[in-house]
Amino acid sequence: MAVAGRWDRIEALFDEAALLPAEERAAFLARACGDDPEMRGEVESLLAADEKAAGFLGRPVASAAAPPAPPPSLVGQRVGHYRVEARLGEGGMSTVYLAVRADDAYQQQVALKVLGYGAERADLAARFRAERQILASLDHPGIARLLDTGVSPAGQPYLVLEYIEGTRIDHYADERGLKPRARIDLVQQVLAAVEHAHAHQVVHRDIKPSNILVTNDGAAKLLDFGIAKMVSPDGSLGSAPLTAGSARVLTPEYAAPEQASGAAVSPATDVYAVGVLLYLLLSGTHPTAEGRRGAGEVIAALFEVQPKPLGLGGLDEVLEKSLRKNPDERYQSAKEMADALGP
Which listed residue (206, 224, 234, 270) is catalytic? Predict the structure, then answer.
């Protein structure tokens, strides 16, 4: 399994296991991880780190009851005005399908993001509603647009999103053998989308290659605002407070130090993630996690390892500033980082 795909699977398993009572987690992981003890160890490391963070933050770490079994696949079914044709991807709590308009009003392909649970999981439904509101507030060519919303016959909330036919940004750059300047140009497109989100008090919190697709004509599109947060102009969390579920969801390789420690997030949190992305695109290596195995080692390295300069002159200065451990010492906006990267 590719590294990014493996982390997606680990993240999904962690998200599910964290919702179970502690005494049920071992059996769940034994079934879910099968003959992959390394994956199980990585999930257990995340769970252990989450327990520590929960104690620090004074919040519960799991619901009292196990979540219900997710409903079966929707492929071949009609949901609202759309017919579901194929599964595109799956996370811990939702599934994304390729769907087409089915009422003959007009032809359109869409991405249908369906929550795996209905009204019985009020906490997850609240997170889904928050994502809906965030997407409704954004209108930028570099962000997949929200087209419609609804609830399936089975009671599952869903979002109808612009379908982006493209390749994840790191694969796109490597498959085309892009030179450094072209890779920087792609990152600047991402930064423009991130700046738009920040201007609307939205911090994405999960910028990573698998959440950025590049179309055949070279347009970068930022996806998946599932764990994004709206913040007040002063940088504090606004009307969408952290919950036990949302606070712990992160991708270890792309999380900023303040995310891993449970501290407040800000636009500088996304700047850090874009710094990791740029470092990877320019070097093919991770700035802090290279050679580390397991979520525990990755998170430890996040605090302990200083990224090595790549020998790229001014670009090294941009990377160094964007990847500083203290968010107050990074670029304070996506635009500031984009300007530093030059025309």
Answer: 206
Judge whether 217 counts as a catalytic residue: no
Residues 59-103 pLDDT 10s = 333 333 444 455 678 899 999 899 999 998 876 578 899 999 988
| Cβ contact 90:130 at 8 Å | no
Round to whole Å and give the CA distance between 33 and 80. Answer: 35
pTM of the shown model: 0.75
The per-residue pLDDT for range 162-190, each reduced to its tens digit, is 999 999 999 999 999 999 999 999 999 99
Question: Which residues, listed in sequence order, are joined to residue 77 by a DSSP beta bridge?
Answer: none
